[in-house]
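Q: Could you fold this chain for me?
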Amino acid sequence: MNELTKIGKKRTILISISILLVSIHTIYFYHSVRPDVESKKLIQQIMRFLLTIGLLIMVYNGKNWAKIVSIVLFSLALLGALVALGTLETPLINKVPLIVMILIYTMAIYHFGFAHSFKEFFIYQNSKTQ
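A: Sure. Below is the predicted structure, expressed as structure tokens.
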């Protein structure tokens, strides 16, 4: 494993952790402002979180379909966050989680789609499986 591959591995892990933290924050924030926990919504959010973990594991393992699906889903999330940022009539301090989400999803799209270090790590992961 060369240096660029190691960098790609490290950044893939860090971006994956960041995405999972944003997801956990979203789940917590949704339920923290409600007087009671909606069990149906919580189950949906936990299932989405588990599917996100599975998708990120598949991306880490070098599956091309997972990389494409993640880029598409992160682009949709980025678009939703940008729309929310522009349409919400709240103070800027309340928009900070959206700004963080925008930054993380932008980094993830760049990393999985264009970064040379991820491409090297992706090739390395695929060469291990063959």
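A (continued): The helical segments are 3-32, 39-60, 64-87, 96-114, 116-129.
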